[in-house]
Amino acid sequence: MVFAMMEDKWNFDEWAQSYDEDVKQENWIHKDYKKVLKLVAEKAKGIVVDIGCGTGNILRVIKCEQYIGVEPSGEMRRVFKEKWGFEPVNGHFLDILLPAETADTVITTYAFHHVPDGEKENAIKEMLRVLKHDGKIVIGDVMFESEEEKRRIGEEDGIAGEIEDEYFATVEHLREICERLGLEFTFEQINRYVWIAEMKRTTR
Ligand SMILES: C[S@@+](CC[C@H](N)C(=O)[O-])C[C@H]1O[C@@H](n2cnc3c(N)ncnc32)[C@H](O)[C@@H]1O
């Protein structure tokens, strides 16, 4: 069942209508929102699968052979269809509901932090399943270097409560996962909060 692992505490269905207005506020999570979408889009090529695509804002900037959105919230999918004239697949990080080796690039922006830490490795394995052998995963999201950094920044910026409400990844944890799965990886810090992680299978 598609919604089995998706927590609804953030109420994505209700957020769908106001989402595009909210991101324009550029609060700390969405600081440099447009820039981040553009940077992720520039790294994508060929057949692109976008997990947690929301209302599809990346379509404003992405150039690729084919774009497939994956989105568990029915209302997000509805707003997406209203804007773009086609509908995303009703799937989620642990069950993308696409055949194996569909994508040249799997991208995700501002959605990976909804995956609990204990499920992040399985989410990466599921992204690898739908990725062609020489494909690449690109994750643009709020992340912190380590748990210690997460606490420090949370306290300094007065956002500790907001940070605790989500499952923001640490670069340290993702590095460990990549090493276990034998992936090559890079992490690029875009601002105080947002990083772009790229992962691909080792060619050696
Ligand atoms: C903050 S929005 C980001 C939307 C879009 N990617 C963007 O950058 O504007 C997060 C999206 O992730 C979706 N989402 C939440 N949990 C998810 C999961 N487990 N798997 C896939 N998508 C999920 C939500 O429904 C929502 O549309």
UniProtKB/TrEMBL annotation:
GO terms for molecular function: S-adenosylmethionine-dependent methyltransferase activity. Gene3D superfamilies: Vaccinia Virus protein VP39 (3.40.50.150). Pfam families: Methyltransf_11. SUPFAM superfamilies: S-adenosyl-L-methionine-dependent methyltransferases. It comes from the Archaea. Residues 49-139 form the Methyltransferase type domain. PANTHER family: METHYLTRANSFERASE (PTHR42912), METHYLTRANSFERASE TYPE 11 DOMAIN-CONTAINING PROTEIN (PTHR42912:SF95). This is Methyltransferase type 11 domain-containing protein. It comes from Palaeococcus pacificus DY20341.
